[in-house]
Design a protein that fits this description.
By secondary structure, the chain is mainly α. It has two domains: 2-151, Ribonuclease iii, N-terminal Endonuclease Domain, Chain A; 161-227, Double Stranded RNA Binding Domain. Helices cover 58% and strands 11% of the residues. It has helices at residues 2-12, 19-25, 29-34, 44-65, 71-81, 84-94, 104-108, 115-133, 135-145, 147-151, 161-169, 212-227; strands at 177-185, 192-199, 202-209. A three-stranded antiparallel beta sheet has the order 1-2-3. Helix 2 packs antiparallel against helix 8, helix 4 (44-65) crosses helix 5 (71-81) and helix 8 (115-133) packs across helix 9. The longest helix is centred in the first third of the chain and has 22 residues, at 44-65. The N and C termini lie far apart (53 Å). GO terms for molecular function: ribonuclease III activity. Its main location: cytoplasm. Pfam families: dsrm, Ribonucleas_3_3. Mg(2+) binds at residues 47, 120, 123.
C-alpha cells in the first residue's frame, strides 16, 4: 500500500486519511474470498458508491459544457465516457492495475488486465475518495484524469452503433433486435466473442470483440454498413 499511497500523492496530490478504506477499494472479491478467515472487506460496495459519484460528476460537467445539447445526446455521450472499457483505460492510465489485490486464481488467468475488474476498481477508488475527502475531491481527480480526454473530443467521436441500428430499423415501426453469442475463442483471460445480430429472428450480420459489448457494437456497425 505504501507504493500506492506514494503514487496518489505524487501524481494527484491525494493523501488518504482513512488508509483502510483505500485498501478496501483495491481489494477484489477473489482476494477476500481466499482470505475469509481474516474477514477482509472487498471493493464491491465502494464500486456502487463510486459509480453514483461518477455519474453525477460527468452529468454535471456535460450539462454545463454543452448548454444546447439535448438530454438524449448527453445520455449517449455520458454512457460512452463511463462504459467499462473507458474506465479500465483510466485505471491503466493511473497505474492502478499494479496495486489491486487479487486471488491466486484470478491472478493466474489475467485478472489484472481484465477490463471488468479494472473498470470496477476505478469506480471503487472514486467511492473511497468520496468517503474520505468528499465530492469535491472526486471532481478534482476526474478533472485531472477523465475530463481532459472529453475536452479533446475523444468521446464525441465514439459511435453507438447499436442505437443507430435500432433507430434505422424502427423508422417504419417496432422490430425485435437481439444479439446472440455464437462463438467464444481464446483463454479465459483473453477471450474473443463472436456475436450475431438478429432482426425479428432473422440473422443480419456478425461481429467480434474482446468483450460481448464490443462484439455487439461491431455486429451493429456491420449491419448498418450492409443496410446503407
Amino acid at each position: 500500500m505504501d507504493k500506492l499511497e506514494k503514487l496518489l500523492n505524487d501524481r494527484f496530490g491525494i493523501v488518504f486519511t482513512n488508509k483502510a478504506i483505500l485498501e478496501t477499494a483495491f481489494t477484489h472479491t477473489s482476494y477476500a474470498n481466499e482470505h475469509r478467515a481474516l474477514n477482509i472487506s472487498h471493493n464491491e460496495r465502494l464500486e456502487f458508491l463510486g459509480d453514483a459519484a461518477l455519474q453525477l460528476t460527468i452529468s454535471r460537467y456535460l450539462y454545463k459544457k454543452y448548454p444546447d445539447m439535448p438530454e438524449g445526446d448527453m445520455s449517449k455521450m455520458r454512457s460512452t465516457i463511463v462504459r467499462e472499457e473507458s474506465l479500465a483505460g483510466f485505471s491503466r492510465q493511473c497505474g492502478f492495475e499494479h496495486h489491486i489485490k487479487l486471488g491466486r486464481g484470478e491472478e493466474k488467468t489475467g485478472g489484472r488486465n481484465r477490463p471488468a475488474i479494472l473498470g470496477d476498481l476505478f469506480e471503487a477508488f472514486l467511492g473511497a475518495l468520496l468517503l474520505d475527502k468528499g465530492i469535491s475531491a472526486v471532481e478534482d481527480f476526474l478533472n485531472q484524469v477523465m475530463i481532459p480526454q472529453v475536452e479533446i473530443g475523444n468521446y464525441e467521436r465514439v459511435k453507438d452503433y447499436k442505437t443507430s441500428l435500432q433507430e434505422l430499423l424502427q423508422v417504419n415501426g417496432e422490430v425485435t433486435i437481439t444479439y446472440q453469442v455464437i462463438n467464444e475463442t481464446g483463454p479465459a483471460h483473453d477471450k474473443v466473442f463472436e456475436i450475431v445480430v438478429l432482426v425479428n429472428g432473422e440473422k443480419l450480420s456478425r461481429g467480434k470483440g474482446k468483450s460481448k459489448k464490443l462484439a455487439e457494437q461491431e455486429a451493429a456497425k456491420n449491419a448498418l454498413e450492409q443496410l446503407q
